[in-house]
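Note to self: keep these together.
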Amino acid sequence: MATLPDFSRGPLLCGICNRLLDPKVADTDPDGEPVHEDCYVLKLRQEDAKKPPTVSPNSQPSRRS
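Structure:
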């Protein structure tokens, strides 16, 4: 993840859950938004779960006439 920008002007909120972040342990997502690491991991897992399963060509039953 990228280096956290300077957010000393106000409270630091997670871009995913919108709760307060500790600037000492905050991370950023690929867009540079501050996030909790746990929130970001959960978001990635949810996105992966929404993807359709991949089917390899060898797992398809063959059709014989």
